[in-house]
Design goal:
397 residues, TIM Barrel, alpha/beta, 21% strand, single chain
Length: 397
């Protein structure tokens, strides 16, 4: 990805009104999407909406031939409205009967999470199976070992069970290409023994830094049947498509005793703060002009804005940070804003995209005080603090 911070100098101002923002490199997004499509051109690729469901991004993916994977009804409706006619794989593990009826009426491709849910669905659908390839290095995001609540064990299905499709997803980020390929092998073995099979859904889960060409080559070696055209083959990538295509920028508000407090923390990087042993994001210290800080470096802790001691994002080795400096956070393109926490009721920051020509697109305007008041049903609250009027209960001399 090109040096994003240098391209933002003089174009993205962080101030009291907007102390932080997220920026996607749209060229990097397109190149990564093309990489997957080129590596596996005969497959039908779907973006996992839970990663980053911005309508402006979705329309770009639809234009590149992608469909979408939805883990909830509202998530699916975002893609349905933003990209009419696009394929939507509906994989929620907690579908109500009404949601199933709506998804069927909308023409979505349903995946049942269990035999009980399969009995509720009246259109051709797939069944999610647990291919039992084992846990990855991050237990909380691994869903293909014996403890998983997702899917039916692949080796314990009724012998006479016939489905239009078979679906598996083994986990995210901590899972290896070998695990994903073994899962695909077991799905294909299942499909070969069930003549009614029309499609196979390999799921997603490829780590952000993995090469799609390596994944494709491993599939071709171990599961050549996927490339024979016998079945439609779906993928559901999310993190690997988007994570490294965005960075966040936050102004340093206070710096004291080796701790710099910024405006993004556990509300934005929930996994990083609560599971630091599993998740990390590269941090970099910049000046107000987005240029790297120069001078003798010392380790400084980067703290978020939330009111608990553990809201810490890591540390940077940089010259002493001061108010107005900027902290850059890398790898934030997936599972960050879509996991936003309401702890302390801080508003979501704006999200932008910048293309290779330097044009900036607003993906999300962020939230206002009015939005937060509406969320908590405080409709009568003023949208903006009026400095000319003392707050209720203030003492006036």
């Amino acid at each position: 990805m090109a040096e994003l911070a240098a391209r933002l100098a003089g174009r993205l101002r962080l101030d009291d009104e907007t102390p932080s923002a997220v920026v996607y490199d749209l060229g990097a997004v397109q190149r990564r999407a093309r990489e997957l499509r080129d590596a596996l051109p005969a497959f039908h690729h779907c973006l996992a909406l839970k990663a980053a469901p911005y309508a402006a991004l979705l329309r770009r993916f639809a234009g590149w031939g992608y469909g979408f994977e939805a883990a909830s009804m509202p998530e699916g409706l975002v893609a349905h409205r933003a990209c009419p006619g696009a394929t939507i794989l509906y994989d929620s593990p907690a579908k109500t009967r009404l949601e199933i009826e709506r998804a069927q009426a909308l023409g979505w491709v349903l995946s049942a999470n269990s035999l009980d849910e399969l009995a509720r669905i009246s259109v051709p659908c797939s069944l999610r199976v647990n291919t039992l390839v084992g846990a990855g290095t991050i237990a909380a995001t691994s869903v293909a070992d014996a403890r998983s609540r997702f899917g039916e064990p692949h080796d314990a299905l009724p012998a006479d069970l016939a489905c239009a499709g078979w679906h598996a997803h083994v986990g995210s980020q901590g899972c290896s290409i070998d695990q994903l390929v073994l899962s695909a092998r077991r799905l294909v073995d299942l499909a070969r023994s069930r003549p009614a099979t029309r499609w196979i859904n390999l799921g997603g889960g490829l780590p952000a830094q993995a090469r799609y060409a390596d994944y494709a080559a491993a599939l071709a070696r171990a599961v050549p049947e996927l490339f024979e055209g016998r079945w439609t083959v779906y993928t559901e990538m999310g993190r690997s498509l988007l994570a490294d295509a965005a960075r966040a920028y936050s102004r340093v508000e206070y710096a004291r005793r080796g701790v710099a407090t910024i405006h993004l923390g556990a509300d934005f990087l929930l996994r990083r703060v609560y599971r630091p042993q599993d998740w990390s994001y590269p941090l970099r210290a910049l000046g107000p002009d987005y240029a790297p800080r120069q001078g003798p470096a010392l380790a400084q802790t980067i703290a978020g804005p939330l009111c608990f001691a553990g809201d810490l994002l890591g540390s940077v080795d940089a010259p002493t940070l001061v108010e107005g400096d900027i902290v850059e956070i890398g790898g934030v393109g997936a599972y960050t804003m879509s996991m936003w926490s309401r702890h302390c009721s801080r508003a979501m920051p704006p999200v932008y995209g910048i293309d290779d020509a330097g044009e900036i697109l607003t993906l999300s305007e962020g939230e206002t005080e009015r939005d937060i008041a509406r969320l908590w049903r405080a409709a009568a609250a003023p949208a903006v603090f009026d400095a000319s009027s003392p707050p209720t209960g203030a003492l006036i001399d």
